[in-house]
Write the structure tokens for this entry.
Amino acid sequence: MNARPVPILIGAAQYTQAKDAHPALDPLGLMARASLDVLADTGNDTVRSVIDTVCVVNSFSRDDEYLPRVLSDALGIRPEDMIYSLIGGNSPQMLVNRFARDISAGRRRAVLITGAEAIYSLYRASRGKVVLNWQDNITYRHLQEKNLPSNFDTLLRLGCDHEKQILEAAGDKYLEPNNAVEDAYDLFLPQFMYPFFETSLRYVSGRGIEEHQRYMGQRYEGFSRIAAQNSYAWSRKTHSAEEFTTPAPRNRYVVYPYTIRTMANINVDQSAALIMMSDRDASSLGIDRSQWVYPMGGAELSNIWHVSQRPCLYDSPAITHAARLALKQSGLTLSDIGVFDLYSCFPSAVEISRTAMGISEGDQRDLTLTGGLASFGGPGNNYTMHAIASAVDRIRRDRRLKVMVTANGWYNSKHAIGVYGAEPPDRPWEDRDDTDVQKAIDAETLPEPVERAEGLLTVEAYMIRYDQDGKPERATVIGRLGDGQRALADVSADTGELRTFERMELVGKTGEVHYASTLGRNRMSIPPLTRYIEPSL
């Protein structure tokens, strides 16, 4: 018998609300539905009475730190501890790892984790297609009272403001996602950061622009085929590679090189739930062993926090080391993993994870269990709980299968990785200290970019923003000055020139940069192709 209790997953459930649901459940209702389903999934009526922890993953569409209490009351559960997580797509996997350590140490007995988003219902209501009776939903009430749009930009900003208030009230520090220079270039939304990763990845891969668009599209075409077979997927339509990446009226560019279909679809109504306890308690309760799934290993690390201060824009040391640590704990190698679920908010997130973990380009193993955030759906911070629930289902059907799940918060910033299987880990879940690994990652932090740059700037990465009609509005680059310092700049270009940038590689090119005091930002002039100044190598 193991010296320590071994944490296991004894229940997993998912729910996707019908697009025409009337009445439409709000996030609390969706969580309650998934929680009732997960209790039923355990096959044991006594589980409810031993749950001592209820944890809710941060919800943009009902951002309320009292949700765990309200949900517990609705379910008739009396937990000792109720937790509302911080913002981050890494949260579900990070929580599983955290609770696995707690259960192993005897600090918790049984944990219910759940989360939900109902952003599609907010979207329907904003267009008069449904009337929502959500007056107890503080986020919905705030949007109504302030007459705010129910889009992701608004919800994310409200969520960050709320999180900052909670942390500061508790005496904790809130980490701003952007440094001052990034903030000056309006880079708050994730969709404005991931194109930098994508264009730098494209350049180092040696692929041309059209070739790389096909590459992205082929990856997502494969994901959509998996989503088409998933009854919980928001979209079960298979799209071709061209349909993913080719701009069209219903698939316009949002931020180059991403069209609507290549980005996480947050306009969904989805929920999921998990129940964890120790193998000892599961045995004493008579939980069917064929339903047990073991978290075999896990780790959580962050990359250098601010994107513009990372020496490399196309890698992830955090994923490299977290995957290594998770596999070491599980007693497995990467070749033992039968299927992955790599976080796929944007194509670059998948590619960065794949290369950071050492999965070869031609590897035939699936990189998603669900169909990915673009096709399956991207329910805010809770997507990875759907991936974990899917892993539980797959392992129950194939007890030999080993699954690795990656979870990503902000801009390839904070990461959590988990390995799952039908057998205990090689090494127990302990309060392992990975601070030396984190310090080694952080030690590579660059100084903040030069706010007022002058001279020549060589482009490392770039992106182009578009309006609601797909018209290019503004291009921004990240690059290096002659002395090696980082700088950001907006490109001096009209609409026609911005269209030209869609068809030519700017990475590696050099142009004049100067600070425009009227804008509070640097401006870069891109010379004609025949006059590009190639950097000396």
User: Anything to note?
Assistant: Residues 119 and 282 are 36 Å apart (CA to CA). The radius of gyration is 23 Å.
